[in-house]
């Protein structure tokens, strides 16, 4: 119940003999009033309607009285007692109970209202906060031991409010930092020092005059909690509106540490505590917005979101290095010699043909959606990892895996709901008659199984593939992959594998402008089928990616698969769509790549993005094909379809749908394609930009007429982009196509940054 200024004026006169002008001012939960007495004195009155926690209000007042007896007396409010000498006045007004407190007024400007936080002010803030924490070491009160929604020790309770955040990107970022708190901070909680602290020294609770802190107000969240929480909260808010937020935080932290030594262990969790405080703030704001319209609940919301986005781009190692150095501790980044040692051991223990990306290898230690963090403190935008489909360490997927792994993981000889639930999710996303699933552990294994099924169904062995194709690393998958068997160390083309022309509209036999190009490329498949017939052989299957990956990031020509499938089926063969790199909404226009061609395969192979990095894959067939494969020989896969994998797959599908990532792939991909295409005006090295959604290829050529591949230029570009924080890779038969297949959470801002840096690098290559 809101107390009117008139009623409060009368009450203050009755209980305090105060004749004052009363003006309501902003407050978070309490009702706050500015009092101007007839003697020229300014006071603050805080009013709590019933129900209120009198013991907790008493703790706040006792803390103020305690600090008033220390050198900090001038920087905290003093308590004004009523006529009976009591700090708290309980009274009934108009039938409602209220608890009233009167405090002195502190002069100064809120940090949030200062245009600039000078280094001198930030230093004084750190020093003063350290003095307060030092003084409060001996303060205690029974009421500070309670659940407090603003105590970072209880921050995980704010997970319940995540659903109030309607923006998908914002919700997953807040959820990510809460997950990191759970992983990085919670295991150390009981090793961190505890103390009674202010617990809310943010930019609207700290007053300043020029370069000095004049006061700390509002002890309404005082708590016995981990000491490091107090400085973490303050650092969070001084980082607001800063182009270099870490620099501001370090200035405060250094001064704090000089006054009150922090431990290296406390500093190790500071980055995650800042992220947790921001997540707590934005979830609270979202929850309050759903409940009411008190504008004071939202004053920090925009700044908090901006800082969360900034924090996501800051490598936690960089933050800890800065925090450690500010407090006189060594950096946590390993020396170059340690990386050299790691490479040495790798060469001794790992097969030499397991390659490492980039001339200057990276040791990636952590990921967050489209960002990767190395051990040196650098942040990279992952522009190529289509395995982490919904983003590295997506909290929904991680928690689903954790939860199931802690409950049960076993094989599929037992009934399990998630196996059936996931099978239904997959088959519901596919057209009829694709309705039966087999689960495996990788795309290679799934392609292997798909060929096995097709050979059993058709009683034939021969398979048609596309030239330059890649379908995996198993023995059968390698036999299907000209990229491997025609490459260095390859064993050559097996007699039962037949290569059809790569349907490349840019440099193939039939090019853009030929409306019959798709049908003409398909005739090459018919030619191979005819050749098989003359040798008294049939075809078991035709398999191809529905957009060509290793073949050069190539979208198939219109009607290509429609014509190919017609030829193959007429010969009794099965049509296999390899969706391992393409599916699950990546292309934007559709959920599956084959839908671009208006066809329905007989078998679909799924992998890579299916588990967001968790090893799982699937083969989906028609009921007729499945019945044929049920020939008496059991199909069993120890790990395929296990409960953890199924819950992971369910979570990935849930995220794709609920966060509308297919639509994001479409919009961001189109935006990226426009930006890359504009580069062609100034950079003739770009021969073509092609793709769908976030499946994009940029083919580089030295000559736009001869199409001479731009090698080694492309390698120089990829290395330079890596040095600028963008992870790219190359593909194509001629090794001259930049492939761009980032996690679907890749944003338009990321796309713009990628294009801008690529523009600069291309100018340097000239």
CATH fold description of the largest domain: Aminoglycoside 3'-phosphotransferase, Chain: A, domain 2
Strand order of the largest sheet: 15-23-22-21-18-16-17
Distance between the termini: 72 Å
CATH homolog superfamily of the largest domain = Aminoglycoside phosphotransferase (APH), C-terminal lobe
What is the 3D form?
elongated
Q: Any idea what the CATH architecture of the largest domain is? A: Alpha-Beta Complex
How much of the residues is beta strand, in percent? 15-25%
Low-confidence stretches: none
Radius of gyration: 32 Å
Main CATH class of the largest domain: Alpha Beta
Please explain how this structure is put together.
With 766 residues, this protein is an alpha+beta fold. It folds into four domains: 5-104, Phosphorylase Kinase, domain 1 (2-Layer Sandwich); 111-327, Aminoglycoside phosphotransferase (APH), C-terminal lobe (Aminoglycoside 3'-phosphotransferase, Chain: A, domain 2, Alpha-Beta Complex); 366-388 and 661-764, Aspartate Aminotransferase, domain 1, CATH 3.90.1150; 442-634, Type I PLP-dependent aspartate aminotransferase-like (Major domain) (Aspartate Aminotransferase, domain 2), CATH 3.40.640.10. Helices cover 39% and strands 17% of the residues. The strands form seven sheets. It has a seven-stranded mixed sheet, with helices on both faces. A hairpin with a 2-residue loop joins β24 and β25. The longest helix has 22 residues, at 270-291.
